[in-house]
Design a protein that fits this description.
Elements lengths: L2 H10 L29 H9 L7 E7 L4 H11 L2 H30 L4 E4 L10 H5 L11 E2 L2 E3 L14 E3 L7 E9 L3 H12 L3 E11 L6 H11 L13
Helix pairs in contact: 1-4, 3-4
Length: about 240
């Protein structure tokens, strides 16, 4: 881990919000809020209702809300003007790089490892996804073999819209273990549809790793309470993650 990476990510840490450990109000699948007495949040219940094979291990590096600096970073590294992309793309890449430097070995232990990493394609952009470009300089020992395994297919996908045929698997993945990467996780529509498509094509999805999981603190007082609890804690890249 270089001094430059440490310095940059330490300056970004105040914009990140720690992901919660297991609790009665935390969804064990995606780490968002869940209603009292329910096994999962509404989004994850929907994923199991509408997809054949959603991935049960979703690993956000951070939570985020809207508006926030983190939301701007995750939006404008791909949709901003040239100066915004120049600023934010290295920051997004650095967050993911620091995560794998700190916890890559633990993640391999937790999942059993993976053969290939795959970024969820954009809805309308011409490939490669901006996250692919942000990842281009990451050490291969942390993210081995990044492949463009998926392309959009006929199924609808989006906010609270999931489909087994939203993505087409372009390569033979039978017997491969795949780590799915995405920048944001809001309802899981895209990430979980991608995971289901890969599984149906014969792959095993080790986990979905995302830069940040969105939480809407204004939706319910209970969500606000969970958010405030997490936002009050300082973020540390080196803190032992909830999934270990």
């Amino acid at each position: 881990m270089t001094e430059e990476l440490i310095e940059l990510t330490n300056t970004l840490a105040p914009d990140l919000v720690p992901v919660p450990v297991d609790a009665e109000d935390v969804c064990p699948m995606c780490r968002s809020w869940r209603p009292a007495g329910e096994p999962r949040c509404n989004n994850c219940v929907q994923a199991f209702d509408e997809l054949t094979a959603p991935c049960e291990l979703v690993i956000p590096i951070s939570l985020y809300s809207k508006p926030s600096e983190m939301r701007d970073r995750l939006t404008f590294y791909k949709d901003g003007d040239e100066s915004q992309q120049r600023q934010y793309a290295p920051e997004v890449a650095a967050i993911l790089d620091r995560f794998f430097v700190e916890h890559g070995n633990q993640l391999q232990d937790r999942t059993g490892g993976w053969d290939v990493a795959c970024v969820v394609p954009s809805e309308s952009r011409v490939p490669p996804h901006p996250l692919e470009r942000a990842l281009s300089n990451l050490p291969a020992r942390y993210v081995p073999e990044r492949e463009l395994l998926l392309a959009r297919d006929v199924g609808n996908v989006g906010h609270r819209i999931l489909s087994d045929d939203a993505y087409r698997v372009k390569e033979n993945v039978v017997g491969l273990t795949v780590l799915v990467l995405d920048d944001v996780y809001t309802t899981g529509g895209r990430s979980q549809s991608a995971a289901s498509a890969l599984t149906l094509a014969g792959a095993h999805v080790a986990a979905i790793v995302v830069i940040a999981r969105r939480v809407n603190p204004d939706w319910k007082p209970e969500v606000r309470a969970m958010w405030d609890r997490q936002a009050a804690r300082p973020f540390s890249f080196s803190e032992e993650p909830w999934w270990v």
